[in-house]
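> @MW can you paste both from yesterday?
MW: sure, first one:
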Amino acid sequence: MSDTTDSFQLLPGAAESPVILHVPHSSRTIPAPVRGGIVLDDAALERELDHLTDAHTAELAAVAADRCAVTPWRFVNRLSRLVIDPERFPDEREEMLAAGMGAVYTRTSHGEELRPAAVDPGPLIERYFAPYARAMTAAVAGRLAATGRAIVVDVHSYPSARLPYELHGEGPRPPVCLGTDAFHTPPGLTARAEKAFAGFGGTGTDSPFAGAYVPLGFYGTDARVGALMIEIRRDLYMREPGGPAGPGLTTLAHALAELVDGLGER
């Protein structure tokens, strides 16, 4: 049975799978009380969701999971990143605070006001961020207990053209960007991803987005937890911004399944 709340969903995979496909930015859903704290009108909010939502990535992960020989686990954010961004540090360690885009965003992708700058992020952190972090921590702990290791594969997408909020967007924008962490991403994990996605025009590493998500309880301390971020350039599989998916989604899902199946091997 899946573990589901209004905020997130854990979809179980095979007991022997160490892999968790993490899909944090696929939803456009914003609860009404949270919508009340956002200053954009409805049309502007829809445009912002077009730019910042990793559209169709939950579907991509689902198709990939169905094709895997050993089904991975999936942890899916059911709410928009405009509610909270579960992959940000919830404190001053987060560099995106400089762009008004910490765990609770106050600025849009184009630097406009999303919420008042003086907003207290505490209630949103307590209501949405903290339970999400606890559940993701428990999911990773479950894989460690069952298999002795855990591999978090983040499923993201990114626009073909740089958006103003990107702090490091001046570099290459490859078809598939692999985000790595010096402690949690061993070279073999990156190499498997490079091989799986080789047919899409090339991969790059840590440009325009870098890093990989690991729950803070394991971050930098437990080498049994591996992590890799997959950033797929949106023109490979959809009409930008915010448009429908195309046939590229299925092809990319097959590549993701190849990667996951490879990660299940010792």
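MW: second:
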Amino acid sequence: MRPDRPAVGRVSAVVAVLTAGLVLFPRAIPNSVGRLGSLLEAFLPWLGLVAVVLLAVGLLHRSAVALLALLLPVAAWTYTFGGLLLPGARPGPGELVVVQHNVSDENADPAGTARALADAGPDLIALEELVPTALPVYERTFAPEYPHHAVRGTVGLWSRHPLTGTRPLDIKPEGIEEDWRRGLRTSVRTPHGDIAVYVAHLPSVRVGAGGLASRRRDESAGLLGRAVAAEPRDPVILLGDLNGTVDDRGLAPLTTRMNVAERGFAFSYPAALPLTRIDQVMARSATVVDIRALPATGSDHLPVAARITLG
């Protein structure tokens, strides 16, 4: 039996209100049970697909109420994410191009990956999941255009400009006993002045029957946030696989202190079907003008490239 139009309209209206509410107020979903709030925030832009479903329902059942109801999630999504679709500002003085990439410790073609990243023409290239067997390949391939580099543990930064004051960054959460070095801080001497650059790889998260397992990621984000807060130099640029989106409250120690990209979604993971961006570029006392995903390499992540205006 085909549902009557009033019933379809009422159900559509309820779905529309709930969807719009989640888009605008995702933190209404608590993190106390299974970190469901963070799980929702990881895929928040995809709630826009509800409007497509409501449109199909409204047309199929010829329900004016259902068609009107879809305006709520459309308006909420446009208000929250619509600005990311606008074109970025024109290139200007004091601008850097940076590339961030988790190259994967199982990457079978590090040389090809390095060439692809260099072809994007960035000033800085940050890498995570560097392994001893692949590191010499990256060093050799990058050397002609990126003569300055620093590696600490499994993270590294390659630069066209000199690096000074490089040191490891302790973002290791409790409970990890093995050698775990996933952060560095350095200064880059650019033509526009010295900047502090952080490269970090936060712990992975897993989705299981109990929800999102992100305790270690959240703890490491807190340590990184405190390190950035204590940084005396400005501007500051953070590049890394943070295993969370900029909407995820687990990264609040960083997103409350730093600017995120003004334009672009740049979904980067998984590379085969990118659904979310966990590879991030953030800045303090600088503007991340836009961010975009680059073509796939031998990694399970896509690289992302961002333009940053200093000052």
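> thanks! The mean pLDDT is 93.
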